[in-house]
């Protein structure tokens, strides 16, 4: 079936669009930013007014109605579900297990000051060693797991002050 994209329009409406639907879109490019689209036997004039490819955000004008669109692929959704979304990491006050696994090593102690991207612990999951790093500068308030512990997804591991 191909890749599926989740879209949010005007922070209100959520849609799923797959590659097959995009490839079947009846659209003709008129200029760099303008398209003529026919959908369900109706004609639409589409103008891409602003685009930020890196952030996957677009402002599109369809028949003189303006829409703000955010597009998320499977990786974006997985990153968000794991709690590693850009922007949210600066407010993280705890580290939870991103997946079930075994704590191989804890490299910090309570009351220790850490910098963003310092290694906190190593979690073995699916026969791979996953290095869990600090999402921000801070001081370790508590460590709720020990070396050798089996942990479940979303189990609290470390708290920051």
From TrEMBL:
Domain Lipoyl-binding, residue spans: 83-161
**Keywords for the protein's UniProt record, in alphabetical order:** Biotin
Q: Name one Pfam family in it.
A: Biotin_lipoyl
Give the matching Gene3D superfamilies: 2.40.50.100
SUPFAM superfamilies listed in its UniProt record? Single hybrid motif (SSF51230)
Name this polypeptide is given: Acetyl-CoA carboxylase biotin carboxyl carrier protein subunit
Species assigned in the record = Hwangdonia seohaensis
